[in-house]
Amino acid sequence: MEPAPHAPVRPWRARAEVWIVLGLSLGQSAVYALVNIVARLTAATPLRDQATALNPSRSPRPYLDLVYQLLSVGFALVPVALALLLLSEPGRRATSRIGLTLARPGRDLAVGVGLTALIGVPGLGLYALGRALGITVEVQAATLDQYWWTVPVLVLAALKNALLEEVVAAGYLVERLEEMGWRPAAVVAASALLRGAYHLYQGIGPGLANVAMGVVFAEYYRRRRRTMPLVVAHTLLDVVAFVGYALLPASILASLGVT
User: CA 85, CA 137: separation in Å to the nearest integer?
Assistant: First the structure.
């Protein structure tokens, strides 16, 4: 499906806008991740013996921890709102423009589940391979204590990640780079490299795996103009990782190379 024509955007304004949006969101994360991987690679402890926690507890007091978790989710979605605001046009909502709608729930769910299988199974294998090769840190997907709200908060965190990454790295970035006259291959490469960069804090293996995921997701969006299946797939991937880590017995986690 060919993209609809866009209103002309001044190149300098588009470039500045992209840098600002990325600087407030995934671009900032990418810079920190690059510094982090350099720090990890130059540390005395080998990469294979290092660990990173994705959803850490923020307070020993349960309800204060819950407040911090919800605030983290809420503020992380502000760049999503900004990107949607900037993509909106007279008479056309940004959510419609990038396909972040419930207009095709059955099809979007089916595609999302398919993408989950396509990305998730090889991703788990690449993680295990990376751990074996010593180029991936131990990823502790959820280190929250067990409270009544732990699983709902992990699901919210998964949805937050999906909205932030797919709206900004897929929908917004692809739209803006195309408006700036970038070639399709360069657009897909930029989106994929950004995705890989902000995952480098997990090690080189996950960074490369996320570049591959970024190619698939960016190309899907470029052809179909729908972020909803990508959000579904990303949410499912993170829910399985986060909730599974929180609920699986230690013996099974150990067999997967995590503790």
Answer: 37
DSSP collapsed to 3 states, the chain: CCCCCCCCCCHHHHHHHHHHHHHCCHHHHHHHHHHHHHHHHCCCCCHHHCEEECCCCCCCCHHHHHHHHHHHHHHHCHHHHHHHHHHCECCECHHHHCCCCCCCHHHHHHHHHHHHHHHHHHHHHHHHHHHHHCCECEEECCCCCCCCCHHHHHHHHHHHHHHHHHHHHHHHHHHHHHHCCCCHHHHHHHHHHHHHHCCHHHEHHHHHHHHHHHHHHHHHHHHHCCCHHHHHHHHHHHHHHHHHHHHCCHHHHHHCCCC
What band does 251 get if pLDDT is binned at 50, 70 and 90?
low
140 forms beta bridges with: 53
**The pair of three-digit structure tokens given for residue 156, joined into one six-digit string:** 């919210």
Q: What is the dihedral of CA 152, 154, 157, 159, to 10 degrees?
A: -60
pLDDT at 180 over 60: yes
The average confidence (pLDDT) of the chain is 91
Where do we find the tokens 């349960």? Answer: 62
Is residue 152 left, alpha or beta, with left meaning phi > 0 and alpha meaning psi from -120 to 50?
A: alpha
Q: What is the distance between the alpha carbons of residues 37 and 217, in angstroms, rounded to a whole number?
A: 24
Judged against a pLDDT cut of 70, whether residue 184 lies above it is answered with yes
What is the C-alpha to C-alpha distance for residues 22 and 201, in angstroms, rounded to an integer? 18
Return the number of other C-beta atoms located less than 10 Å from residue 176's C-beta. 21
Per-residue model confidence (pLDDT) at position 243: 87
